[in-house]
Amino acid sequence: MNAFTVFLTRCTFAGGVAAVILLTSLPTQLRAQGLFQQFMAAYHSKNYAECAAAGRQLTTRINHPDLLIQLAECQCALNNNSEAINTLNKLTGMGIGIPFDTMKVFANLAKDTQALKNLVRPPVPPAFSCSTHYQIADTLFIPEGIAFVAGEKMFYVGSLTRNKIISVDKKGHAADFFVPKNSNWQFTGLKASGDDLWACAFSEHGTNKGHSSIFQINRKSGSVKKQFVIEQGEHLFNDLVKTIQGDLIVTDSKTGYLYRLRDQKFTPIADSVSFIYPNGIAYDPGKQRLFVAHWMGISMIDLTTEKVENLDSDFSLHSIDGLSWYNGSLIGVQNLSHISRVVKINIDPQRKVSEVVELYRETARGKPGGIPTTGALARDKFYFISNSFVRNAEGEGSVRNNEQVTPAQIKQISLR
User: Fold this and answer.
1) In terms of DSSP H, where are the helices of 15-80?
2) Of 165, 320, 349, 393, which sits most exposed with the smallest number of CB within 10 A?
3) Mean of pLDDT values over 361-366
């Protein structure tokens, strides 16, 4: 599901854009919802004049890079090059570096070479070394979540389509680690803690359709210790953390809420807040706070008060999938419409983002769907799934355009 579909779904079925994110009144939320629907309908029908008109209003409320790029596409199609350049200029301060000069939709801008040159960021050498650590032979595995146990050099990787979790040992030997009795579960976020592997799962079909679950699995035997299922309504558990108090906190991308699992019961955190597709989550044990990645950026939650604040940033923090806490900074896996990258997000004492360092970048994705998803820290190394093809995963274990899918790779970035 792409970011625009996610946003449209959240607006349509959840009653509007979350006030904590857009910091607007309810009437403004509803106007943004209507504008977004109008903008996307016009964009897909190639009604560029209507798309540009709706987009100009929409982007004053929602400053998402993907929306700006689509608005600029419409403006180029109308030969409004100066407007397109002004729209794209809004991206230059976000630290993204879109390769406009190689994108066919912006071919008209070649007439204004100086303006285009100002937009295009020169190539920047990788900040840290990156290499391929492991390759999953099964091309239809479609991985989403990953966990790593540094002391054992053991990986765990969950599948959206094979409905199982595999383990990969230090010699690179892969084996089925956990295959649930009910084969409808699709696995997302994984976390290793002591002798346990905690696994998020959801189901889109069968008797568990709409349900989500957290599995507590013994890492030595692969047997289930406990399973916690949330059944009422439709849910999509995406990622989770474990606090020093022993609570589990999980993002629910379908409802937009965060849930705390304590005493075998799920309760919402900051239950007046609903995010647009909350995804990755990171935990700072020292200051007892959470960082939650969602479509509009990253929000911070104080676990003692449950106060929610948006992370103040001039850089783009939109559409981040995996999120990890590392020595006072965040490591995020970001997927925008034309760029996939891994970034290190440095935060100053005033809770403002002071710097975003790019660790890995793909501007030409090649085959559709080959995007990175989540990662796992092991001391000063970050391991992440670099080409998941999650967008090719369909219901009941099928894979769309499976002839395009290539083996998923786990890459390693040295952070020192």
Assistant:
1) 19-22, 26-44, 48-58, 65-77
2) 349
3) 66
